[in-house]
Amino acid sequence: MDRDLDRVMERYGNNLFRLCLLILKNSGDAEDAVQETFLKYYQSAPSFETPEHEKAWLLTVATNKARDMYRFHFHHPQVDLEEWREYGVQKEDSYILEALTRLPEKYRTALTLYYVEELKIREIANALHMKESAVKMRLQKGRQLLEEIYRKEYMV
Amino acid sequence: MNNEMKRAVGHIEMPADMRRRILTNVKKEKKVQKLNIREIAALAASFIIFISSVFYFSTTIIEINSNRSLEQIMMFFPTVELPKLMDSLESTIVGQAE
């Protein structure tokens, strides 16, 4: 099991961390959410038919852990631009990332799962406990909002 | 915009020390202990509420049945005098029945 944990960390660690960091906007909380996800994986020892299934399972658990933590905390400290660069973000990319973090949590999560983690609409609907049509609406609205923020704040 | 977002976020990597810390903690199941503290706190709060409710209702019932004020009843609770209170309560009830 320990070996399996190392493999999962190697393969999906970055995906889980970036998802939790974008939802929580705080590296300490993101670390806790990733740790709880791994702990659930460790304790429940699920079996998967395909690697995609395994990835979707881990991202679903991480999303729910991070969203629970986000709702539970009253104060949400934010990662600043300098800190983003510590995690490997290029300077020219930091503005789109900052615009993304300014979106409300529900749009941020849906956009990240779809465009960054490339989950299918059905898998996102399953992770967020929503209908597929509602996920599509959320993605559409999220794209609109992101574009508005980006044009207004970062494009001269 | 979508491609830019994927590129920007796709560069984010988990720091190596955080990776090591998480693996160590999960393997030792340290987090289990941390989670249990929350559960224990919730259980303790429920227990306190339950005991307070029982205490409140029992004193109210004794107050009504024994014609004693709450202050008089409270005098018995922290001491070993509780059996005496129960005896007097019993005799009062038996007396009233007779």
What's the short story on this structure?
The complex is a heterodimer of chains A (156) and B (98). Helix content of chain A is 77%, strand content 0%. Chain A has 156 residues and is mainly α.
What report would you give on this structure?
- The complex is a heterodimer of chains A (156) and B (98).
- With 156 residues, chain A is mainly α.
- Chain A is 77% helix and 0% strand.
- Chain A has eight helices and no strands.
- Chain A has helices spanning 2-24, 27-44, 51-72, 81-86, 94-101, 105-116, 121-128, 132-154.
- The mean pLDDT of chain A is 87.
- With 98 residues, chain B is mostly helical.
- Chain B is rod-shaped.
- At the A-B interface, helix 1, helix 2, helix 5, helix 6 and helix 8 of A face helix 1 and helix 2 of B.
Mean pLDDT of chain A: 87
- Biggest β-sheet strands, sense, barrel of chain A: none
- SSE sequence of chain A, one letter per element: HHHHHHHH
Oligomeric composition of the shown chains: heterodimer
State the shape of chain B.
rod-shaped
The percent of residues in helical segments of chain A reads over 70%
Structural class of chain A: mainly alpha
Q: Could you say which structural class the secondary elements and strand pairing of chain B correspond to?
A: mainly alpha
Itemize the secondary structure elements and their pairings.
The complex is a heterodimer of chains A (156) and B (98).
Chain A: H1 2-24, H2 27-44, H3 51-72, H4 81-86, H5 94-101, H6 105-116, H7 121-128, H8 132-154
Helix pairs in contact in A: 1-2, 1-3, 2-3, 3-7, 5-8, 6-8, 7-8
Chain B: H1 2-10, H2 16-28, H3 30-66, H4 70-76, H5 82-97
